[in-house]
Amino acid sequence: MAGERKFIRENTNRLLIKEFLIKKIEGAGFGGMNIQRTPMGTRINILVERPGMVIGKSGNKIKEITEDIKNKFHVDNPQIEIQEAGSSASLNAKIMAEKLAEALERGWHFRRAGHSTVKRIMDAGAKGCQVVIAGKLTGERHRTEKFTEGHIKFCGETAKQVMDIGYASAKLKVGIFGIKVRIMRPDSKLPDEIKIKAREEEKPKEKVVEKVEEKKEPEVEKKKTDIKKLTEIKGVGPSIVKKFEKAGITSLEELYELDVDDLAAIEGIGEKTAANIIKGLRKILEEVA
Q1: Where is the domain boundary, 84, 112, 144?
Q2: pLDDT (0 to 100) of residue 220
Q3: What sign for the dihedral angle of Cα 25, 29, 34, 38?
């Protein structure tokens, strides 16, 4: 029983600290807190929308809160860390409930404030939300007004996992309005949400074709006849042979592959000489073969 009493005492103390912080930093947009014991002391993380209102000028307010928690609740060496809600403030049910309460206290009509809060939450990406305002809304009798959009879970283990719930109260002349905000977070996954993956088609196995190396036949060296044999043609002297050698032609076979125009284009060889060489060249090559 001693262990159970210890857990009850600690949890009761946490609840009292939470209620104390909500009153102490009213207007800063309290979004929740987390208490963690460390070897150095007790770390208290507070999520707020406006950190400046909690810290105060030169850190005076946060020092005052730290001292109050240490003395009133007997917490060993409390270390308070302030975390800004930032863009996620619209998805925090506690912050949105407090902002709705502030709007009602400033004189907003409850329907306008309720619809505006729902729109802001859904625009932030929530899967669903519900705003409940209870009190003397339109007359002397108590009534409840609900503003709902999207998908909501009200009970069961699923509701505990995917729903964020926040409470607040607005003090008006006609009395106190109770406010409750439920938000289904954007990353919530419901048990009935099933994704079916398309089956990937099996790719046909590629046939392995063995590459057969083609046997290359040994190149037969072409027979080359010395170009100096060209002097056997009538009218062709050693000077013409030298001009062909200068042009890079070293055999009669290379010379035979050229036509009359190609020969005539060589410097010092005219068309008549070129035609004469072509005629005589055939006879020489036939004799060599």
Answers
A1: 84
A2: 45
A3: negative
